[in-house]
Write a structure and sequence with these properties.
18 helices, mainly alpha, globular
């Protein structure tokens, strides 16, 4: 496969996954901002969560001034001038899909094109009239439909593998950043020392729901969510679709099935990361310090993305 074609497929799926992840971030930050603040503030700290995760706080402050709920939600949902907005991610995904129209199925193309047309209509209508919760559900649903069309219609060849690579490298990064942002805002020991167990429970539950892992948590663990249980679930449990371990398993599988020798650096790194997660316990993670462990692994996932880019996607 040509590097340009592989790159378009890879980034098409990355942008689609990123759009869904942004919707999940907005949903959890918006829901947290609505809960009682116990005199600590007005919920803007929670609304700033997507800005912290994506590193766009300075850009937002420069363009829009102090944090404001409606402006922040528009900034991440429908702002055509913010490259990190859901609107721009879907636009970029559609552009990449158009470039490889002959390598994806009609069902996949029609889904992406319809999604782009719909979000343009939502942008004209305005987020205030459409509703933030309804918009986040729409963004997630459109990506679910695309994944269903992909899984059900495309051949299991190299195009499929590069689409899966883009999805899971983006998903791994998002899971790490969401968990780390929760740490930065609230600290590791909030469960024991914060004195607000109801608030802690709601925050952990919101994070689990944002990653579609609440039902999995309820099935695997007893009692209320806390740092240890949630970290183990989202980092080390292979059976949880949005866990870091599940993402690395899929990345390792897809990379090992690609032909040729050019991809050995990426294949080796993916295998090393998969093995590290397979044989790491949650006690080792917490002994190292959750924040430090997450920060290190975010860098490792970035290195893997760069290795994939260098090995397969750059035109010689």
């Amino acid at each position: 496969m040509l590097s340009r074609t592989a790159s378009d497929l890879y980034w098409m799926s990355r942008y689609l996954e990123r759009a869904e992840n942004l919707a999940r971030m907005l949903e959890v930050s918006y829901s947290l901002s609505l809960m009682p603040q116990d005199g600590r503030g007005n919920g803007l700290e929670e609304l700033a969560l997507p800005l912290l995760i994506t590193g766009t706080l300075d850009e937002y402050l420069e363009r829009h001034g102090p944090l404001h709920a409606e402006r922040m939600l528009h900034f991440f949902a429908l702002d055509a001038e913010n490259p990190a907005s859901i609107y721009c991610c879907l636009q970029a995904a559609r552009t990449n899909a158009h470039a490889v129209r002959g390598r994806i199925t009609a069902d996949m193309w029609e889904n992406i094109n319809a999604t782009w047309l719909e979000i343009r209509g939502i942008a004209e209508q305005g987020l205030g009239r459409y509703g933030i919760s309804r918009f986040c559900e729409w963004a997630k649903e459109r990506n679910h439909l695309f994944r269903g069309a992909t899984f059900g219609t495309i051949m299991r060849g190299d195009p499929y593998r590069f689409i899966r690579l883009g999805t899971f490298i983006e998903r791994a990064d998002n899971t790490l950043r969401l968990l780390d942002a929760r740490y930065e805002m609230l600290g590791e020991d909030i469960d024991e020392n914060d004195g607000r167990p109801a608030r802690s429970y709601y925050q952990w539950t919101a994070l689990l729901r944002a990653l579609s892992s609440y039902e999995a948590f309820a099935e695997i663990y007893r009692g209320s969510p806390n740092t240890r249980k949630v970290a183990e679930l989202l980092l080390l449990r292979a059976e949880v679709p949005r866990s870091l371990r599940s993402c690395m398993d899929e990345l390792n599988l897809m990379l090992s099935s690609l032909p040729g020798d050019n991809g050995r650096p990426a294949q080796r790194l993916a295998a090393e990361l998969e093995a590290r997660l397979r044989y790491t316990s949650i006690n080792e993670v917490l002994d190292e310090g959750l924040h430090g462990w997450l920060t290190d692994f975010i860098l490792l996932v970035r290195q893997l993305g760069q290795a994939i880019q260098t090995s397969y996607l750059e035109v010689a």
